[in-house]
Amino acid sequence: MTPRDLVQMLLTVPEEQGRQLLQTSLPVFSDVARDRLVYQIKKEADRCWNTNAKLSFTLSGYLLLLGKLASNRYYHAL
């Protein structure tokens, strides 16, 4: 699964399932793929801010989760 595939899945699944997907997928991604995932989630959260604020907040929560799981302050700051 690519970061883009995972982001597309995150847009369609319930939040709890999305969190589980991230927790299981993150360890298999390389550092570069992890960065791409974070940037794509951020881009999607920004894109839907005006049209679907709830989804934007959910995606923001995923960024916080990724920051915690990866122990990466930059991800958390996004």
Give keywords.
74% helix; single chain; mainly alpha; globular; 78 residues
Q: Can you describe this structure?
A:
With 78 residues, the chain is mostly helical. The chain has one domain. The protein has five helices and no strands. It has helices at 3-10, 15-25, 31-47, 53-69, 73-77. Helix 1 packs parallel to helix 3 and helix 3 (31-47) runs antiparallel to helix 4. The radius of gyration is 11 Å and the shape is globular. The chain starts with a helix and ends with a helix.
Number of strands: 0
Low-pLDDT windows of residues: none
Strand content: under 5%
Mean pLDDT: 92
- Give me the secondary-structure category: mainly alpha
Write the layout of secondary structure elements.
Elements: H1 3-10, H2 15-25, H3 31-47, H4 53-69, H5 73-77
Helix pairs in contact: 1-3, 2-4, 3-4
Short précis:
The chain is mainly α and 78 residues long. Helices cover 74% and strands 0% of the residues. Helix 1 packs parallel to helix 3 (31-47), helix 2 (15-25) packs parallel to helix 4 and helix 3 (31-47) packs antiparallel against helix 4.
